[in-house]
Design a protein that fits this description.
binds NADP nicotinamide-adenine-dinucleotide phosphate, 11 helices, binds hexanoyl-coenzyme A, Rossmann fold, 298 residues
Amino acid sequence: MIKVVFLGLGPNNEPMFQKDLLNGHKILVTGGGTGLGRSMAQRFSELGAEVVICGRREDVLSQAAVEIQKVTGQKVTFVSCDVRDPEANEKMLDQIWTEAPLTGLVNNAAGNFISRTEDLSPRAIDSVLNIVLHGSAYVTVSCGRRWLKQGRRASVLSIVTTYAETGSAFVVPSAMAKAGVTAMTKSLAVEWGGRGIRLNAIAPGPFPTPGAWERLVPNEKVGKALVNRIPLKRVGEHIELANLASFLMSDFSGYINGDVITIDGGECLKGAGQFSFLGDFMSEADWAAMRPPNKSKT
Ligand code: HXC
Ligand code: NAP
């Protein structure tokens, strides 16, 4: 039987983390009002962190903050902020720092959609690059400057994608932007690591969210094809990514710096292996025909 870790519990219902793993942490999750950002925010909060979420839509943020706080009992606040706007970011961080400095930042806010690249207007290209590449860089540098000035230890986690490394047709601005965020992560891990700031990234495979699915999965056929590519034959559960993020934000991952951790059920490796697709095409008879004659099946 395959045992899978769901709801943060192990195969025998044991908790994955001690309940106070993130006590004393204060973490900003950009785009924390929806999807994976919200799931991470809730998990950090369950594990004792004070959480701040930001995004453009105040009503979405306000509802998420109230709902998370209701479940976890921890302090959750929100700031309506467009990460593309450096002045708005500074204002948000000033407001956050007035109470207490952040100990961590999760660059999760993103924009993306599928399109043939030749159909993209300059504004369409910028719309993705500005949120993902520029937004992540602005917020990271603004936080970093504060941490460095105050001599504080901190951790930055960026949510990228597996195709940041390989590239991907039909989501080219996103692939370009996520590759840039990966480069920022690795560069600053070296530049700032010695001054107490760790930077890492998570590269998720498909984790269904309304935001991603309405822009990237046009119909059920595509949805099925997406799952079929994954060796584990299933999409990711939010709690699986949220637990990985919690570990990377915690002090227990203190020696991990500048890394990109893939969580995709093996999807990107399957795409890379030259013969990996054979599992989808070969029947028992096909395999039997490939064995040398007179060799019994083992
Ligand atoms: C072609 C498009 C388009 C589309 C928008 N544009 N959608 N072009 N195909 N599907 C063009 C518009 O026509 C316009 O160009 C330009 O992009 C800007 O559009 P706006 O709507 O004005 O932009 P804005 O309001 O800034 O919104 C940004 C956005 C939007 C990225 C376009 O979708 C958004 O707000 N997304 C946020 C949430 C999100 O994308 N979540 C998914 C993340 S999932 P013109 O020239 O006409 O003015 C993810 C997962 C990856 O990253 C991996 C999954 C497995
Ligand atoms: P989502 O729910 O659409 O999340 C995107 C969030 O970013 C939204 O809350 C959105 O809120 C916010 N945002 C967008 N533009 C912003 C801006 N300019 N300023 C501030 N906030 C902004 O999608 P998701 O699937 O959870 O994606 C979360 C992250 O995971 C993204 O980085 C995505 O690339 C990554 N990822 C997702 C998958 C997946 O399968 N879901 C796979 C790989 C990587 P507002 O619209 O209110 O601003």
